[in-house]
Amino acid sequence: MKRWPTKPLGDICELVNGAPLKPSDWDGAGLPIIRIQNLNDRTKPFNYTSKKLAEKFRVRSGDTLLSWSGTPGTSFGCFRWDGPEGWLNQHIFNVHLRPEILPRFFIHQVNSKLQELIAKAHGGVGLQHITKGALSAVTISVPPLAEQDRILKLLDEADELRRLRAQADRRAATLIPALFHEMFSDETAESSKPLGEVCLKITDGVHITPTYVDEGVPFLRVTDIQEEEISWDSVKRIPEKEYDQITKRVKPERGDILYSKNGTIGIAKEVTWERPFAHFVSLALLKPDRKALNPTFLTAWLNAPDALRQAVGRSKTGTVTNLHLNEIRKMRVPCPPMETQVSFVRQMTEIRELEVSQATSRTRLDALFQSMLHLAFNGEL
What we know:
Shape: elongated
Helix content: 25-40%
Distance between the termini: 9 Å
Strand content: 15-25%
CATH class of the largest domain: Alpha Beta
CATH topology of the largest domain: Adenine-n6-DNA-methyltransferase TaqI, Chain A, domain 2
Number of helices: 13
Strand order of the largest sheet: 2-10-6-8
């Protein structure tokens, strides 16, 4: 096993902090100000300043930038700047590297140590900072330049696999909407019906906040149905007596559909589980007529663009967006023959299985890349 020499970060680079620019310095003209948000999301708009700053604050394409302030897990990190020339904002170091280390090798290595760096941060629960001294003391492996180049090529190959996986994932995410459009875009107005005619019941949850307890029956809100799977360990819970009282009006059952109608509207979740639960007023409960609508088909339609357009168009906007039950009942859903709905559900299930397989592949590739980083910087790759 090779052990590459290590050096403190401060011995292989100079860290030059950005300028202490304030919102009063923004004037919409001049050069862009490169802030932490522009590093984390290249689509974020720039602020500009026409002030003439010291040359040390200028950033050019190819510079190595290291953000040292922000929210742990989202803001800290090392980046190669490939954007326009601009002025560097405070809380970001421009890293001037010595010739003995390649910029991309340095960036990979620093980012592999983010948890170590975050542990050195100080500040409040929100905004935290890593001091220049703490950064300078972090040790970096410095193999010969030829070895750095070899390692980078191997990492590039692994990263390309991750890029291709992400590209395939993005394509897979468009398959279900495309399938729905292909199968039902020709549905005429005559074949569509108001939801109120093809659902046995459309109601909502309890209108008052119940008593929350550590142990009890799950109580679902809009935030609980936004992910692919419900996190039952983290949902709110209510006493069983309150659950019995709440569900006297209507008890959710397998095959029903939860539909967000307050705040974030237009998210549908089919009830595919048997465990009892209650829900808040922000969620509508739809009980489809199984002779007219397959629940999985209806859920897919409610999550499709056409349903969202109808929901948005029928919503009342104010402090909080509200989609009233009467407006949900008026939304028109395509009602193709049941065999067509079942065919769609079968194809959609196959796509979902593909997505699960891709997620497993993505996890493995991420783990492989992290393992390669560890091996590379310990002289084992």
